[in-house]
Amino acid sequence: MKNIVFLVIIALVSTSASSKVTYNVTSFGAKGDGNTDSTKAFLSAWSAACNSTKSAVIYVPTGTFLLATAITFAGERCQSSSITIRIYGTLVAPFNYAAIANSGDWIRFHRVNHVTISGGTLDARGGSLWSCKTSGKSCPSGATTLGIYNSKNIVISGLKSVNSQMFHILLDTCTNAKLQGVSISASGASPNTDGIHLISSNGVTILNSKIATGDDCISIGPGNSNLWIQTVACGPGHGIR
């Protein structure tokens, strides 16, 4: 009887493992050399994951991957029941802030469902734009590093965001989102670099995170409901408001 139970457990584990398909961004042409633009490769990996009839994993290995232009991951036509983006490397924006500064967001998710972003670092290289702003010159407002819109069942876990041009993470009209173990950092003198900004979202949980920015650690805009924020270390920054 014990042998039969053991075989059943093994079968269940095997079935669960085979129910996911993994797409490595390097298989689509991404290069972790910090110089090659990997934007198209990331979009191709996303398209493959979306078109999968299984749960999908987009795998980003160690290395530094340049996303030289603003990128949007759209979920309206996704067939996959869930997509996990598992990041072991660092995604970097171009040194020239103007390349993304007028795009609204550097990395955008729109109308996605059951998406998890796990691990990794996002470096928007916002320092030169901060300098422009503090000099009194006419400068663009800058891009949010990670913007998620009209989406539901989102998990952001173990992600690190540094040097955002503007907001680090934005949730706009999202439902059921959990952020945990997130690390956010920018200079205490960096303007408008809110850590997490919430707008018109419901059921957002933020746990066990560290936020150090030049503006609000967490800024709560209009139209939000059912927010839970716990064990968040804030500073420098203007707090949670």
Report on this structure:
The protein is α/β, with parallel strands linked by helices. Helices cover 16% and strands 42% of the residues. It contains 3 helices and 20 strands. Strands 1, 2, 3, 4, 6, 7, 9, 10, 12, 13, 15, 16, 18 and 20 form a 14-stranded parallel beta sheet that branches. The longest helix has 17 residues. It is globular and about 50 Å long. The N and C termini lie far apart (59 Å). The N terminus is likely disordered.
How many angstroms separate the termini?
59 Å
Output the structural class.
alpha/beta
Tell me the radius of gyration: 19 Å
In one word, what is the shape?
Answer: globular
Determine the fraction of residues in helical runs and give it as a percent range. 10-25%
Low-confidence residue ranges = 1-17
How is the quaternary structure best described? single chain
What does the main sheet amount to?
Answer: 14 strands, parallel
With helices defined by DSSP (H or I, 4 residues minimum), what is the helix count?
3
Order of helices and strands: HEEHEEEEEEEEHEEEEEEEEEE
Q: How much of the sequence is in beta strands?
A: 35-45%
What is the number of E strands? 20
Q: What is the average of the pLDDT values? A: 93
